[in-house]
Each structure stands twice: as C-alpha cells, then as structure tokens.
Amino acid sequence: MSLHFATRTETTLPLHVVDQDGFGDWQAEQPDAIRGWLAASGFTGAIGQAVLVPGLNGQIEMAVAGYGTTKTRARKRFILAAAAQALPKGTYDLISDLDADTLAAECFGWLMTGYAFDRYKDVSGAKAGLLAPRSVDAQRIEALAKAEVLIRDLVNTPASDMGPAQLQQAAEVLAGEYGASCDTIIGEALLEQNFPMIHAVGRASDQAPRLIDMRWGTSGPKLTLVGKGVCFDTGGLDLKPAAGMALMKKDMGGSANVLGLARMIMALELPVQLRVLIPAVENAVAGNAFRPGDILTSRKGLTVEINNTDAEGRLVLADALALADEDAPDLILSMATLTGAARVAVGPDLAPFYTNDDATAQILSAAATKAVDPVWRMPFHDPYEAMIEPAYADLDNAPSGGFAGSITAALFLRRFVTTAPYMHFDIYSWQPTKAPGRSKGGFGQGPRALIKALPQMLGL
I need a labelling partner for 120 at 20 to 30 A (CA). Which of 25, 94, 254, 383 fits? Predict the structure, then answer.
C-alpha cells in the first residue's frame, strides 16, 4: 500500500478550511448563493463537516471543511482527516492559513485516511486525494506515511504470519531497499555468541529465537535503535488468561516502531550511523520453557531472578542493550510494548519515555507537539532501584507489590546500558477504536516525534 499526494486534474476542487470561531466572518464574505447553500446544509465549521458547494451553473465549484474551535481541536488529532473521510472521491486543493508544522501534520493525517489493512480481506481507505500544499515538504510527509504503513502492517499481521522468521524477513526487505546490511544470529548460535536471555525466552517456540542486526550509514553520530520483537506472548509458564492473549500479536510493536523509524531515517538520509537491534522471539510454553524461580545470567554478566515468565520483554531487550552499549554509540533508544502499568498511567494515546537528559526531554516534547505524535516523560526514579534487587540475584524481572511497574521496568533496562546515553519508550502501538487518520489496530507511537527531534538531539 502506498499513500501519496494527488496530482492536479481538471476536476480538482479548492477546499476551504474554515475555523468554527471565524465561520461567521468567512461566510459574510461569500456570495449569497454560497451562504444559502451552507445554511441549508447545516454547515457550522465543526470538526468532521465537509460540504461540496455548487456554482451558479450547477457544477461543483468548491468544498468547505470545518476546522472546529480551539477547544474542540485540543481534544482531537488530524482534524482534516475527519473531512477527508467525509468527502467523496476526488482531488482537493487546501485553502487555509495553517502554520507550516500544523499543515504538515494535517497532511500526514489526511494521507493516512487511505490506509486499510487488506492482507486478508478486500477493504480500502478513504478515496479523497489531496494536492501537496506548496509550503510543506511533500517527499518528507510521504516518507513518514510509508513508514507508518510499515508499522501498522507489521503490528496488524497475526503471529501465524509474523513470527520471528517473518520479522527477520521484514527487516531484511527494508535493509535491501536502502542498501543496509542485515545479519541475524539464530537459535543455538545465540548461546555461542553470548545472548543467553534471548535464547532462554525463545527456546520453547517452534521458531528459533534470533537477534536481528541491521546497519546503515558510515558517517555521523552513532544511533542505535533496539526494539522488542516478542512476536507472540503467551505469558510462558505464567500463562496469560485468554483475554490477556487477545492482542499479543502486537507484542512486537517495539520492533515495528524502530523499523518504521529506521525507514524514516534512511528515506530522509539523516547523516547518522544507524544500527537496529531486534531480539525476535515467541514466548511459548513447552517442556524446555524457562521457569519461575530460574536465575538467568545475562550477556552483561548480571544475574536475573525470574519471578514471572510474563515479564519476558525486558529479558530479551537486556541482552540486545548490552550489545548496543558495547559499541559506545552517541544514543541508544529502545522501544517496547513493555508494561500494562504504562497504560494505567497514561492510557493508549500517550507514549511514555524515559531519559536522564532534561534538554533531550524538552527537545522531544516540543517536537512531539509539532508532529502530533504525543509523548510523556516518565522518571528514572533512582530510589526505586531497590525494588528490582532480589535476594538471590542481581536483578528481579518482576518485582512484587505492583507499584511503579513501568518505572521499575525502565530501571531494569537501564542497568544494561553503562556507556551510552539512553532513552526508553514504553509504548502501546495500538489504536483501540477507529479515529480520523487512525485506523483501529496497529499504530506508530514515537517515530514521528523522534524524526523531528533527532537532528537537534544529535546535533546534525
């Protein structure tokens, strides 16, 4: 699926974007026929309203889309995507006074109304095409849309067709598209090359566990992305109930998001040395599954007491983070659908992130607002370190008590990064209900904010 801006045709219509607060003034400047048509149509400028307006000859002359009020827009994303979904098939030319960042975000939302997950069923998205406004970087927006399609397709694909081997293949296809290298360590070779926790988590599956290692770029700052690739999570021997497994195909959402971000970086040719590490496993149940009470030794040498086999994502990430840190990059960034505690804290819309660097946090938060890709900073709260230190090992993968679950998971991961600056995202990567520009299902969280922030974060 490719989502692109449209090309101008003889039937392209001007689309006037009208703020609800200013609708009265705008309407007063229109001819009587247009004012009467809009009044008869009940148009007020509310979000989601879109009206085709005929001229005196009876032919459609223009379209008008509501942009709501400041208050209603604060509760929505991708305002014009709602209009795109209401408009009939055709090509539209935006007439608006939106600032550049807002217009770029609205164009992205519009393009994403064309998305539909059609691998198993003949479905399609909205048909309203959009001309690229002169003030936006059309190539960049299309690159972001293409990356978002990759993220959504990967997360939406069920584990029957998106196991560790298929995730490896997706990374290899992406690497081939941009001339990147992609090497993978599989099965028993993980033990030979000292990735014991990735092996332990994935060894019970019919598909062997693996570590995917993609590299691109030969100059500039070193940026390493680490994405959780648990392609299905049964919970292991601490088996989830059926309801808890319903969305576990999306437990590889961290890997999908880092691959989407990698696509953005490569398509936009950011001058960085990019590395992408994905521990790809299935947390299955079998006679050789790792057990509650086991103590595993990580790549870094830290021992980990297993108090819940359903807290497996941090185990596979730990080995990958240790490898990333050995290379001493300028930034390590991990993304994972890691904890339900994060959802309790901030819900499905916000992407919580952790960093000790206040300046980086401010840069990212400002970029996220402009990109309409909301994030929220959470603390690496040092006093909670004691909560992840059990009696019999260096670390506990599932501290008892139930408090601060997202924070303790982030602190656990931070133990495996001792050289490089580190940032962690605890994402959901799932849109629970359909919304303008956001189909129900897999969803990117963080990559668009990061691609906007990275040049300043890395001094590019």
Answer: 254
